[in-house]
Amino acid sequence: MKPGIDFPGVGAGLVIERDGKVLLYKRVKPPEAGHWSIVGGKVDHMETAHIAAKREAEEETGLTIGDVRFLCASEQIIPADGQHWLSLIYLADDIQGEPSLTEPDKLSDMGWFGMDDLPQPLSLFARDAFRHLRDRKA
């Protein structure tokens, strides 16, 4: 039995900000392979979502993540991939280091992007996160 496929999965994501830009990675695997997204992944059993967001972000970017703040919840049913995820998304600007592609089997490209110059296609999770981020800053 696989989360997100055989039953709704619980994920955690992290919007990483630096100098007015957000860090995005291009996904290799479903859900939404080929889409640009925030970093994140599955919440492990007995792991809190904010810790999962930090852990996944550190694994995927090589950055050291400090404090994170809750941004939003995003539930996505992705018929094309046969997946259903509920993700708690956090925000971090307390980061150290330079990001890299530490998991090339999962992520193929990366970059810092301004909110008015986001790459396409964007994942559904990233779209939700950025909508909440814009609302928060308005």
UniProtKB/TrEMBL annotation:
Q: What is its EC number?
A: 3.6.1.55
Its needed co-factors are: Mg(2+)
- Which UniProt keywords are present, listed alphabetically? Hydrolase
MF terms (GO), sorted A to Z: 8-oxo-7,8-dihydrodeoxyguanosine triphosphate pyrophosphatase activity
Q: What class of enzyme is it?
A: hydrolase
Domain Nudix hydrolase: residue ranges: 5-135
* Top-rank taxon: Bacteria
PANTHER family on file: GDP-MANNOSE MANNOSYL HYDROLASE, MUTT_NUDIX FAMILY PROTEIN
| Record-given protein name | 8-oxo-dGTP diphosphatase
